[in-house]
Amino acid sequence: MSQNDWPGRLTQVIADQVRRYRLARKMSAQGLSDRCATLGMEIPRPVLANLENGRRPIVSVAELLILAAALDVPPVVLVAPLGHAPNVGILPGRQIDTWDAALWISGEVRLSEDAADTEAEWLDLADERSIVPLYHQHDRLLEELESIGEGRIVLTDTANNVINVRARVVASLQAHRALMTERGLLLPPLAAGLEDIDSGPRRVRRVRSVPGEGGEQ
């Protein structure tokens, strides 16, 4: 098949996934149509039938999202049939591992510049193309702060300096939010008590520990 056939082949992948999940939920085509209408966008039963039977060569982004919501599945699995196919033609002439395709669509990895490369590359936070990973890291830092709580937890580093664990995580979060701001991204909201984190630099306090004492001075 030529690369010009790619849109139709990708549409068929989506159609097959729609049918798979519709049948798994014991939902008729009319039932799926009704559910789409309930969610705010009508897709008539004949349109769904034509899609599943390969007579409809295109699916719009809006249709993809409403179908995913109606079937209660992540939109990504309609495009990348994770768990049901080892690879997928994610671009014209570009067949890659289905898991890598799902990660690419989800913003976690980037595709190699070499079209013959079937593997994707993880996005590093320093990479300017990294957007989704930045928000994941922000969530991880907030979760770490929540697990620490307001307690006074300290660690000792290899130089026998005492480190305030909470202050260290707060400083990491502040630097991370500064990076997001630098890249023009909207900052996620902060929990109570952290509202002033973007107002200025915070330093992790380190002091030389005194024999027999484990706290800060």
Instruction: Give me the secondary-structure category.
Output: alpha+beta
Order of helices and strands: HHHHHEEHEEHEEHE
Helical content class:
40-55%
Arithmetic mean of pLDDT: 87
Beta-strand percentage range: 5-15%
For the record, give the distance between the C-alpha atoms at the N and C termini, rounded to a whole number. Answer: 72 Å
The backbone outline, from C-alpha atoms, is globular
Task: Describe the protein's architecture and organization.
With 217 residues, this protein is of the alpha+beta class. Helix content is 44%, strand content 12%. The protein has 8 helices and 7 strands; from the N terminus they run αααααββαββαββαβ. The strands form 3 sheets. It has a 3-stranded antiparallel beta sheet with strand order 5-6-7. A two-stranded antiparallel ribbon has the order 1-2. The C terminus is likely disordered.
Describe the structure using short key phrases:
single chain, about 220 residues, alpha+beta, 3-stranded antiparallel sheet, two-stranded antiparallel ribbon, 7 strands, globular, disordered C terminus
Could you give a short description of this structure?
The chain is α+β, with helices and mostly antiparallel strands and 217 residues long. 44% of the residues lie in helices and 12% in strands.
Secondary structure elements and their pairing?
Layout (H helix, E strand, L loop, with lengths): L5 H19 L4 H11 L5 H8 L8 H11 L4 H4 L7 E5 L2 E4 H8 L3 E3 L8 E3 L9 H17 L5 E3 L4 E4 H18 L23 E3 L9
